[in-house]
Design a protein that fits this description.
alpha+beta
Length: about 60
């Protein structure tokens, strides 16, 4: 079943996988070259609110 056919449309998290896919190899190659950057690397993401979650304005009605 395709996600396009699910009702209500589900609220999701956009993990910005394109940026993650560009950044991960850069960190890998840096580590191979001895320039590892240890620790947690936070990547931007965003909440995509769809019909499965109520919007705060709807709750006030």
């Amino acid at each position: 079943m395709s996600v396009l056919h699910i009702r209500p449309a589900l609220t999701t998290v956009d993990m910005n996988l394109e940026l993650l896919g560009r950044t991960a190899p850069q960190h890998l190659f840096a580590a191979i070259d001895g320039r590892a950057t240890p620790g947690v690397h936070k990547m931007p993401c965003r909440l995509v609110i769809r019909d499965s979650a109520s919007h705060p304005d709807r709750l006030a009605a």
